[in-house]
């Protein structure tokens, strides 16, 4: 945590440079520039824990904007995805994170969406913002379980955020994360331990595959795909 805080603090000059990038610069170049520091942070934090990260299926990630859909085992899931997907992503975050100094500024730079789940109207507006991000060429990551499982079990998928992909007509990429719970959640007290973590990326669900499906069917299909990856 101390390393992460210092990393973010000393990255402020780079954040200022990123904010100066003009709108005439292509989306992919802007996102790649903004993603360099978060990717580096993700990799370094996992290295500090001594964990081993194995990635499979990167060839399944399409070019252009996608919605990544992942299971959620622990707090290190975000850092695994930032560090090892090798594609710039924003993600949905609790609005309370805005109270943390500096961090929200970086999150805005990588196109994260802040959502207040206690306020239905605001939550819907946030999802509309996410749809526009996808339409404008940015990729997003969601955890449809809504909370950490803190283990290998896979919870039920909520459907609301999947509407962003359908409304923007972008591919949905299933991602299975396994092992992150052993870094932190299964330990007694504030202790980090090394773990063997796998990041498995399955073939995308393309718009032509899911446009005739309702959100519940889409969620069930993604759940099944991720469950199969976890069982491997």
Automatic annotation (TrEMBL):
Pathway: Lipid metabolism
Annotated protein name in UniProt: 1-acyl-sn-glycerol-3-phosphate acyltransferase
Pfam families hit by this protein: Acyltransferase (PF01553)
Substrates-to-products reaction catalysed: a 1-acyl-sn-glycero-3-phosphate + an acyl-CoA = a 1,2-diacyl-sn-glycero-3-phosphate + CoA
Domain spans labelled Phospholipid/glycerol acyltransferase: 66-180
Classification via InterPro entries: AGP_acyltrans (IPR004552), Plipid/glycerol_acylTrfase (IPR002123)
GO terms for cellular component: membrane
SUPFAM superfamilies linked to this entry: Glycerol-3-phosphate (1)-acyltransferase (SSF69593)
Record GO terms (molecular function): 1-acylglycerol-3-phosphate O-acyltransferase activity
Keywords assigned by UniProt, alphabetized: Acyltransferase, Lipid biosynthesis, Lipid metabolism, Phospholipid biosynthesis, Phospholipid metabolism, Transferase
Family: Belongs to the 1-acyl-sn-glycerol-3-phosphate acyltransferase family.
Organism expressing this protein natively: Metabacillus lacus
SMART domains given in the database record: PlsC
Gene Ontology annotations of biological process type: phosphatidic acid biosynthetic process
Phylogenetic classification of the source organism: Bacteria, Bacillati, Bacillota, Bacilli, Bacillales
EC number, UniProt record: 2.3.1.51
Record remark on domains: The HXXXXD motif is essential for acyltransferase activity and may constitute the binding site for the phosphate moiety of the glycerol-3-phosphate.
Coiled coil spans: none
